[in-house]
Structures are given as C-alpha cells and as structure tokens.
Amino acid sequence: MTTGERSTVFHKSDPVNMFDVVCLGIMVADIVARPVTGLPARGQLALVEQMEPHTGGCAVNTGIALAKLGRKVAVLGKVGQDGFGDFVCNVLARYGIDTSGVVRDPVTNTAATMVMVDPEGERTFLHYLGANATLCADDVDFDVVKRAEILHVAGSFLMPTFDGQQTAEVLKRAHELMVKTSLDTAWDSTGRWFSTIEPVLPHIDYFLPSFEEAVQIAGRDEPEDVADFFLGYGMEIVALKMGAQGCFVKSTGQAIRLPAYTVQVVDATGAGDCFAAGFLAGLSMDWGLERTAKLANGAGAACVTAMGATTGVRSLEKTLAIVADSR
C-alpha cells in the first residue's frame, strides 16, 4: 500500500459493528498515592492524604478517554488471570469498551504501577511489566482490528516482545485491512530508541510521541526538524506532546504550534494518553488539523485536573468548553 493510498480515514460499510479506534498496547493496574514528598526510611511508614486504585497503561488510558469523548472503542492487550486483571477489564466494560480481544495470561500477573504524585502534580513510578512483557503479534485479534477506522498502538518501548518488528508486522497487516495506524511511545529505559522502532516507522500514519521521546529517536532537537524526520518515513501527521509548552503538529501541508491550556494541575498521570485520545477523536470525526490539535490539548488539560489517568477527562461538549474558554 502506498502513502498516497492511505491519505484519508477509511469508512467501513457496517457502522453498527465498527470501532472508531482500537487501542492496542499496555494494560496496567495503578495504585496512586498523593502527595508524596519522599520515601520513608527503610522499615518505617509515612502517611499520604490519598491512595486510590486506578486503571492505567497507555492502551487503557487512551481507550477510556476516547470513550468519554463519545467514540466507539475496543482495547487489545494482555492481563493476568488475577484480581488486577479483573479490575482493569471490569472498568473498561463500565465505559462500554469492547474487551473481547484482551488475552488473559494464566501464568504472568497483570502489569502494575505504584504512582507517587508530588505536591506539584509530578509523578514518580515503580512499575512491574507483568503480562505486557509477553504480549506478541500472535495475541492480536485481527477480527477486532479489521472493524476499526484507526488502530492505535499505545506504549511502544514498554512491550519487549512486541516492540520493533512484531509491531511493524501488525501495522502492516492493519493497512492491508484498510485500517489507519497510529502509535504513541513511552520512555525507552534500554536506551536503544531508534534501532528498536525504526522497522515500525514506515507503517505509521499518525505519530503521537512526547517531544522528549521523539528527540531521542530522531536525534534532532527542534520540533519542526523532529517532525520532518518522521514525515520523511511517509507518515501523514506527527503530533509532538510538549507538556507545559503545549504541542507542535505537522502534516505534509501544515504546521501548528498551540500553547497548553491553563488549568489547576492535580495529577499529570495519563495526560499524554488523553492528548492522544483527543487527537484520535478529532481524526475519527474528520476534523481539520488545528481543530483536532485543540481538542487534543483540551483532553490533556482536563486529564490533569483530577487524580488518576482518566478521572478528569470529560465529555466532548465539556472538553470543547475548555478549548473555548482558553481563547
């Protein structure tokens, strides 16, 4: 399939059984504590004001945020046959998200993260890879994928079996099924960056990394230069998440820089995933690039106003109100 043949979102003929977006990637149970100013000395105990269980993981966060924005969503990934796995799947089901393609691993437990949030909202993590480490291309249910407008891979660099060539094979198969592809990254603690993701780059339509992660891959340090590096692989759109600086979005014909919206930050957990959800929602509604980027910024801003990765995300109407109020 050539780049020119995938210039628009494909609309399938059976909308009742279609998904706007299928999110494939890491699925995590989070335990979030706030505020944490430091760890207690060995053998001692410290109190926090809040500690709550939340769903986490890029695929779960993005899927829930998309559902809150009114999109029809499925999530694909792998969890254990344990209480954390039950918790994650039950929460997804409560949002009307299809989990028929989620694999339950009988051997490995569900991935989990201890999220420690400081008084300014910044996060520190202790993470167990769990079942995400064994996710592979054979786990992907293409009967679900083929019903999607967009397949979004969420959490590259945190799926050691699936990252790289296996991801490339799945995205290539999605294109053969006339499904658009999107990908978001996480921090690569191995430091391999480009060598891991290079096989995947030619098969991505919409690339939604954080600016810091994109810099590590591209080896460039200016937003436009970074975006151009990835557009050179035939991508249609590169959207760089730039935290407090907003976002930089570029296609082959347009470049947009938007500031972040001003909100009271409670917890920045999941902000990048919610930005991705807003961006994918706009694309799935065939919105223009600037309108889509504004929705993405609004979803990211809403996210940080409450504790947890998706608690603060609002309906499409209320998210657009954030955008309108920020003009």
Q: Characteristics of this structure?
A:
13 strands, 327 residues, disordered N terminus, 9-stranded mixed beta sheet, 24% strand, 4-stranded mixed beta sheet, alpha/beta
Question: Could you explain how this protein is built, in words?
Answer:
- Strands 5-4-1-8-9-10-11-12-13 form a 9-stranded mixed β-sheet, with helices on both faces. It has a 4-stranded mixed β-sheet with strand order 3-2-6-7.
- The protein is built from 10 helices and 13 strands.
- The longest helix has 15 residues, at 289-303.
- The chain is α/β, with parallel strands linked by helices.
Condensed summary:
The chain is α/β, with parallel strands linked by helices and 327 residues long. It has helices spanning 58-68, 83-94, 142-145, 165-176, 194-197, 211-218, 223-231, 271-284, 289-303, 316-325, and strands at residues 19-25, 28-34, 50-56, 73-80, 102-105, 111-117, 123-128, 148-156, 180-185, 206-207, 237-241, 247-251, 255-258. The chain has one domain: Ribokinase (UDP-N-acetylmuramoyl-L-alanine:D-glutamate ligase, 3-Layer(aba) Sandwich).
CATH second-level architecture: 3-Layer(aba) Sandwich
- Describe the sheet with the most strands: 9 strands, mixed
What is the helical fraction, as a range of percent? 25-40%
CATH superfamily: Ribokinase
Number of strands: 13
Mean pLDDT level: 93
CATH class: Alpha Beta
Low-confidence stretches: 1-10
Structural class, from helix and strand content?
alpha/beta
